Amino acid sequence: MQPRLNAARLTPLNRALRHALFGAALGFAAAPATLLADEPGSTASVKRYSIAAGPLADALNQFARTAGITLATTPQQTAGKNSPGLQGEYEAHEGLNQLLQGSDMEALNQGNGSFILSQRLDVGSAMELGATAISSTGLGGTTEGSGSYTTGAVSIGKTPQSLRRTPQSVTVLTEQRMKDQNLTNLKEMLQQTPGVVVDQTDSERVNYYSRGYQIDALQFDGATLNIDSRNGNFIQPDVATLDHVEVLRGASGMLRGSGNPSGTVNMVRKRPTRDFQGSASYTAGSWEANRYTADISGPLTEGGAIRGRVIAVHSDKDFFQDARMERKNVLYTVLAADLTDRTTLTGGFEYTEMDATGAWGGLVPDFDGSPLPFSRSTFLGANWARWDRTNAHTFIELEHAFDSGWNLKLNGNRSRLAYKDHGFQQTSLARSVGATNPYLWDVNYNFSDGGGRTNYSNLGAVLDGPFNVLGREHRLTAGAEWNEADAIGNESVWGYNARGVDVRNWNPSTVNKDRINPTVNPQAHTITTQKATYASLNLSLADPLNAIIGARLNWYDFDNQNSTTGDYKVTQEVVPYAALIYDLTANISAYTSYTEIFAPQTSYDTSGSLLEPMTGEVYELGLKGEFYEGRLNSSIAVFRTNLIGKGLQDAEALANGITCQPTFAQGSCMSASGKSRSEGVELEISGEVAPGWQVTGGYTYTTSEYLKDSAANTGNALRTTDPKHLMRLFTSYKLPGQLSNWTVGGGVQTQSDTYATNTARTARAEQGGYAVYNAMLAYRFNEHYSAQLNANNVFDKYYYEKIGVTGANYYYGEPRNFAVTLRGEF
């Protein structure tokens, strides 16, 4: 039977009855029966859609043709209404409700592949659904306004896919979760992400690790900029501009080129809305923290063909350490224009400036590596210290949906990260030579005259669409990408300030700016260029089985602008990808995947040739569940990660006196013989488990080992400061009945013990396992205004965010603190 749109009329009573019946059906769906396969003729089979934003009637017709369903509607129901479009894989009912987002309509399932379009029921004017009914609207790729802790689609894989259809471990932090936990920047979000370890280099530079390896690149809207979070001029992105954040764990060479087999962080920006909306908030917190946000979005022309959005943030706060402060301003503007019913052009600009005291180190250890008894308020820095910088991000996108279901996306991104003039002035500590008192340290002072900046650029194109072979629909994704990182370091002056200072008597306000025997560090200038083409096939082998195969062809070029040496390149490096997804039931899929990534090296072998790139490979096997039309997602996975080919000292060449002349006149040859491994288990759940009850959390168990490395490393863990056991959990519940204006929530971050040693293993820092508990209480006064209280580290747990045996590498975690937010929405 051909798909068709039929005329139908529903009275308010009919609509109410259908709502009640649909609620009952969802109640059955919440039971264990959800694990059973669908009956023949069910509409629960997943198909892929590529429907552009535009008139609602056109979108529904295209969906009905692709899905093979019958949809009953009237011209009056769709007249003058638009749809946000649909990209990715969905079941029929879920996809229909995604197409209907922003309208007052919903699709009611009649069974046997038939649906009726109906005005969404106002439960206050008709009848309440049963207490066990889950809300009937499916989720899309936008989390704003969904109230959910999960999403219907992620974009980290170049094209939208549901979490269930992504054969790797992915965590999503939604807008609602950011609000409920009062998260304000990327670092705070990743501290709440399962399987991610946040490691402070100092107060402003942060490393992120997953599965034993560093996450060394960031994405915006799926476009890789290779921004390294360790860069001193990088500002952690503010959540006010983000719809959600996607964190993929494992090798991601198909997505971004070179790097570690650790994962990728994709930040998805907020976009203009077709309907007018606005919000403003004020947050007051501990240590004189004040934060203001404003967000206005809506149509600029009748019908919303051109629309815009402006978001502004100002924050001003001190810290629990004495004399530290941070001031930040953010401005984000974005415009979108429908050039045709199938073509949309979007462009935006985000500017962030931050002035901060910063801290180029934490607290110092004893000789044996144990912590010295400093209070949490101790700041071993100067009150005149500065870490001032600006970040500017510009982007443009063009999307076009063809009649055949194919979709083309072109994008360009540019980011500029820079220090302000004289923006970097910091002190650091080094243990005094020959000291017998653990509190005696030398003070160094570094002053930058500015000029340090990094420009990141990205151009990309991706074409995606379906095709039919042997009576089955498959999908092809192909694209090309170009990235450049042009980095100029600060011209800085370095010198020691004082010798043998007893840090027990440290006073940040009395540190002077003297520099004894200063040295000037010239500006380094490097340009790293990457380009690639890639393609992947999603093959429908049988109704329950899909195979995904793909490859990326890479070129990598590093150019040291200050020298005629140190340049290197990698040409035509192939990175493969393969996965299988098998639907065990209508709600549960099993998957296995093999992913790779490469990392260039700078060492040379006995022939004077550059070592081949290291290869990171990840084997993953798991189960993913998707329930309540995608409003609840869960997963379990086991993985093994290998990093192969690390350059090690060539023992045979060294024994035979081969010194790699003339490349390394004073060094020894290297061989690509190193190997390391990590493996473990990950469990995760996110979304609505019952009406009004949102949960997000995960547990990871990870072990790692240097299988072949230097004598000091072989047999040891890659990072002893990464816990084997790590759990993140947060949940919120909207109270029922007369208390429905109240929402309560709470969470915990817990991890097992960690330690650190020096190279000679004569000193050891260690920390036992600990748990930090957080709580939230929110009250909605009416549809426009609400208030929220957050309490972090409720039991005031003393713990260290970082431990270390050398230098000033002990960092306390935040003491108990509170924040109150007042929010208005209209």
TrEMBL record:
It is found in: Cell outer membrane. One of its GO terms (biological process) is siderophore transport. Residues 69-120 form the Secretin/TonB short N-terminal domain. It is a multi-pass membrane protein. Gene3D superfamilies: 3.55.50.30, TonB-dependent receptor, beta-barrel domain, TonB-dependent receptor, plug domain. Keywords: Cell outer membrane, Ion transport, Iron, Iron transport, Membrane, Receptor, Signal, TonB box, Transmembrane, Transmembrane beta strand, Transport. It comes from the Bacteria. GO terms for molecular function: siderophore uptake transmembrane transporter activity; signaling receptor activity. NCBIfam families: TonB-siderophor (TIGR01783). Belongs to the TonB-dependent receptor family. This is Outer membrane receptor for ferric coprogen and ferric-rhodotorulic acid. It comes from Phytopseudomonas flavescens.
